UniProtKB/TrEMBL annotation:
CDD domains: HP_PGM_like, NUDIX_Ap6A_hydrolase. This is 8-oxo-dGTP diphosphatase. Residues 2-132 form the Nudix hydrolase domain. GO terms for molecular function: bis(5'-nucleosyl)-tetraphosphatase (asymmetrical) activity. Keywords: Hydrolase. GO terms for biological process: AMP biosynthetic process; ATP biosynthetic process. The lineage of its organism: Bacteria, Bacillati, Actinomycetota, Actinomycetes, Micrococcales. It holds the Pfam family His_Phos_1.
Amino acid sequence: MPVIPAAGTLPWRRRADRLEVALVHRPKYDDWAWAKGKLDQGEDWAVAAARETHEETALEVRLGRPLPCSTYTVLGKDGEPAAKEVRYWAARVTGGTGQLANEIDEVRWLDVVAAHDLLDYARDRDQLRALVRADAAGALDTWPLALVRHAKAVPRGQWKDPDDQRRPLDRVGRGRADAIVPLLAAYGVRRLVSSPSVRCADTIAPYAAWLGQPLRLREGLSEEGYEADPTRAPHHLSRLLRRGTPAVLCSHGPVLPGLLEQLVGLVDHGSDDGPGAAKQLAEAAEEKMVKGEVLVAHLVGRGADARVVAVERHLP
């Protein structure tokens, strides 16, 4: 059976200490559900979730922790059955005009009990229950820390300059650097830290230009700096953990395993996604991540209180 990929969010907020979520009404079906829609060709799930939410609600959101997905049978364009797979995220509202424009005639903010009663599909309550559990555990209001392995570069054997730090991305790598822009934007990443090696800096440079924020270069995140002093890279990660603001750190295959192991030590094993998060971090460390991969760790707290409650891996 063919699969139709789609993505959406549960925008949430707190009013008078009461948790509320936003539902949308589709007049075509006369139903209440979460904002969602199909992926564009080649689009990342997370990018589609943020885009579709904006198109359907006019709300700009920052993706938070992932929520349970839904899979159900629909009729495809050819009239044959297809499996529709919808992936969801909790989402913080960061802006928006409030002017509806795409197949939606109403967006309604409701407390979780009223939302549970208004939803038309039982499958949509799975995401709501997960969001409520995360809130009760103090693990809903998260911030993202993205680790990136630089995109594909010109092979070492083809690089004649003795300074390997000057080795640039190749055509595929430059394409991946451009594709990372909407992905980091979906998570609201604001602070940008990278190895000064050209292949790392140029992986994040398109996003820095789009965001209009400086790219902070740290020699301790380079292969050469890590070899000279392995303590400097964990120090840079610890500084980001102390800040507790949405951030990205770009480095190299030999450097990243130590940083991932550092995050493994922060996993909240009591959270719903804790065991899975630890497993994904360990696997990524063993693989040294894939070139061009974006691994997003969702954290609550900062500094000594920081803990990882969920992890996602976005492969090129």
